[in-house]
Design goal:
The complex is a heterodimer. Chain A has four helices and no strands. By secondary structure, chain A is mostly helical. The two termini of chain B are about 15 Å apart. Chain B is globular. In chain B, a hairpin with a 3-residue loop joins strand 4 and strand 5. A five-stranded antiparallel β-sheet of chain B has the order 1-2-26-25-24, with no helix packed on it. A five-stranded mixed β-sheet of chain B has the order 3-4-5-6-7, with no helix packed on it. Chain B has a single domain, classed as 6 Propeller (Neuraminidase), CATH 2.120.10. In chain B, about 55% of the residues are buried. Classes of the chains: A mainly alpha, B mainly beta. At the A-B interface, helix 1 and helix 3 of A face loops of B.
């Protein structure tokens, strides 16, 4: 039983550590160019929407749909162009970061 | 010390006391023989909804400012008083339900005080309005009178406005989404208004994503107006089709100011993924923007607008776009060549203001120009304020350097205050004061 708890704690630790790394990587990726339109911390500026605090599955879904060329809203042309360059990993870490902040 | 210098110092002290400024950055690049000023940036206000433009009383005691998504307010005695709110706003002394914003590019934009404000109390205000839609605005391909310039009278205590008169009612507006990047309704309204050295009101407008607009001149879109306080054209304006128009062929005029040395008008314009521009205006001149389809060797374009072609949904070399739909098309004999273009890029030119006063040292007389920062394709974002030294003939620049702001923001509105400081609004919600000394 002791070994079970040890594995559980270690698993939680590594999952937590991995998630934290994703957030850091997402922060770095977001501030590479996404922040130019969506603002610092994703709060939204001008006609660009707030993207912080959204559910991570929603962000992953939207970025995947933009990447596939689907039009969603008036600024689709811009988002399709930006999302085309994103890898699966970049989408995941962006979702982790944006869902972690408000 | 002469009277003017004493007055400037007094006004600066009043500003500091009135606004309770907080220093946020400081850059000391001066020293040696050249009069390179020390630049200091302090916070005036933060937490606003897209502050867009500012206007100051001559004594520096009051700063009027617009929030694009909300309304017009005034900062006086360290307190903000909300004056005119748009539909859906709250906390204002009064609201005008015909004034609206979808939350995109449209809304309450430019503000300026009359040159005789101390006596007549008149304030001019540019906003989106649905009051004059009439039978128009049913599609994107017809007349839509949806941006206006209002004239208001400001109360002696600055805390209320009255006597609204709409002096320009027919600035064109985009009512529906279209098949373009940034394709939502309300695109390209211009909106900057300034008083020229001759006391006339200058109004910058945008092409509202309608291809025929900038070269048309029977519609008020993609033009700069020079009008009096009642909305009548200046007698010397040379465009016969509409005597209110000073220049035409513009895309989206975001900045207007007047060179101190000779009073010449300059505009700062936001380019279409290529070539942000600064242009010296010539009465009756053509900015050279013509996004109409089936002209200049072009074929049909999405929703009759070639402004982002030939490949509007993908990144491509800005020079290829520039060749297809130029910002300054040399087909036109009356073209006003730009003094400056942004190394082929569009990074989003905001407002512009000439730096006046000896406190600016070697920057005195140069044009401070806000660049908001837009990174599409392989264009670097480039949020900054450029200090542009324009040649005397207005057809080139002698140098461009960056204002050492110590922060990066989308610089939307630039106005020189009566204290000789540059005031800057940002899309992030702040208004900052940039002082220079040496």
């Amino acid at each position: 039983m002791k070994s079970f708890y040890l594995v559980l704690v270690l698993s939680l630790f590594f999952v937590s550590k991995s998630y934290s790394n994703d957030i850091d990587a997402g922060n770095e990726r977001f501030h590479k160019n996404c922040h130019n339109c969506h603002g610092r911390a994703g709060m939204g500026v001008a006609s660009y929407p707030k993207v912080s605090g959204l559910d991570s599955s929603y962000i992953v879904d939207r970025l995947n749909r933009y990447r596939s060329g689907e039009k969603i809203g008036a600024n689709s042309g811009l988002m399709i162009m930006m999302a085309k360059k994103l890898s699966d990993e970049e989408i995941d870490v962006l979702a982790a970061y944006l869902s972690s902040i408000n | 010390m002469n009277i003017k210098s004493k007055l400037t110092i007094l006004v600066a002290i009043i500003f500091s006391l009135s606004f309770g400024l907080t220093k946020i950055s400081y850059s000391d690049g001066h020293g040696g023989g050249m009069a390179v000023p020390k630049i200091e940036v302090t916070t005036v206000l933060e937490g606003m909804k897209n502050p867009w433009d500012m206007a100051f009383t001559n004594d520096g005691k009051a700063m009027f400012f617009t929030e694009k998504l909300d309304g017009l307010s005034v900062l006086i005695g360290g307190k903000v008083h909300k004056l005119i709110g748009m539909k859906g706003s709250s906390g204002y002394d009064q609201t005008a339900d015909d004034l609206f914003s979808y939350g995109a590019q449209e809304g309450m934009l430019g503000v300026v005080l009359d040159s005789d404000f101390d006596n007549n109390r008149i304030l001019y205000l540019y906003s989106t309005s649905n009051k004059y839609h009439g039978d128009g605005c049913k599609t994107n391909f017809e007349r839509c009178d949806g941006n206006i310039v209002m004239k208001w009278t400001v109360a002696k205590n600055m805390k209320s406005l009255s006597n609204r008169v709409d002096i320009v009612k027919d600035i064109q507006f985009k009512p529906y989404a279209s098949d373009q990047p940034f394709g939502g309704p309300g695109a390209h309204n211009g909106g900057r208004i300034r008083i020229g050295p001759d006391g006339y009101l200058w109004v910058g407008t945008g092409d509202r994503h309608r291809g025929i607009c900038p070269q048309d001149n029977t519609l008020i879109c993609g033009v700069v107006l020079r009008i009096d306080g009642d909305g009548n054209g200046h007698g010397g304006n040379k465009i016969a089709a509409d005597k209110r128009i000073y220049t035409y062929g513009h895309r989206n005029v975001q900045g207007i100011d007047f060179r101190p040395s000779d009073g010449r008008a300059f505009t700062a314009e936001h380019g279409p993924w290529h070539n942000d521009e600064i242009t010296m205006l010539v009465n009756g001149g053509n900015g050279g923007w013509d996004p109409a389809e089936k002209r200049g060797g072009r074929s049909a374009c999405p929703d009759q607008y070639c402004g982002y072609e030939p490949n509007q949904m993908d990144g491509m070399d800005p020079a290829v776009r520039a060749a297809y739909t130029p910002m300054s098309d040399t087909r036109f004999d009356d073209l006003m060549p730009p003094a400056w273009q942004n190394n082929g890029y569009s990074q989003g030119t905001g407002s512009a203001a000439f730096l006046k006063g000896a406190n600016w040292g070697i920057y005195e007389g140069r044009l401070a120009t806000g660049i908001m920062g837009i990174a599409f394709g392989d264009t670097p974002a480039g949020s900054r304020i450029d200090i542009v030294d324009i040649a005397d003939n207005g057809l080139s620049v002698k140098s461009v350097i960056h204002m050492p702001m110590g922060m990066s923001n989308r610089y939307r509105g630039l106005v020189l205050g009566p204290d000789g400081a540059l005031y800057v609004s940002t899309d992030e919600g702040g208004i900052y004061k940039v002082t220079a000394s040496h």
